[in-house]
Specification:
By secondary structure, the protein is of the alpha/beta class. 41% of the residues lie in helices and 13% in strands. It is globular, with a radius of gyration of 15 Å.
Amino acid sequence: ARSPKVMLVGQAPGRVETSEGERKAFAGRAGKTMFRWLATIGVDEATLRSRVYIAAVTRCYPGASPTGRGDRVPSRTEQDQCGAWLRAELEIIRPALLIPVGKLAIERFLPPAPLDRLIGRAHDVEHEGGRSLAIPLPHPSGASSWVNLPAHRALLGRALALLGAEVRGLWGTNAIGRSA
């Protein structure tokens, strides 16, 4: 099997992803939203799961948020303790395209800045596996209201258009899955 050219990095597994019988990334509500976004550029869930390496900043479900909305953001200590996994994955995969999803993953690869300065743009990044083009996406969780603002939805649309063009270049136009 050939090595993936694209790596998607999320924050951490959610409750659904760690439940018995599920055990796959982005299986919950946030995943459904993300796959709906990606379907608009012709990348369906099956294609993404077969062609993209999916990783996370942390490896364990951090538990529910104390506010009751969404999951708790993994602490700096938890991120550091899981860091060797992500570093090794980057060194092995050496992705041409990196898709950090959500603020925690975005902060792992890009300098601190408001999301509206980062989403909708392509960034050259350096990491343990070399250099990649990074096109960040906002977190697809219902707990994040960032994407509800019209200007932010436009930035998401721009990010998806950039992703679509980049994926077509890496995979070839015939290799992209059909939208469901």
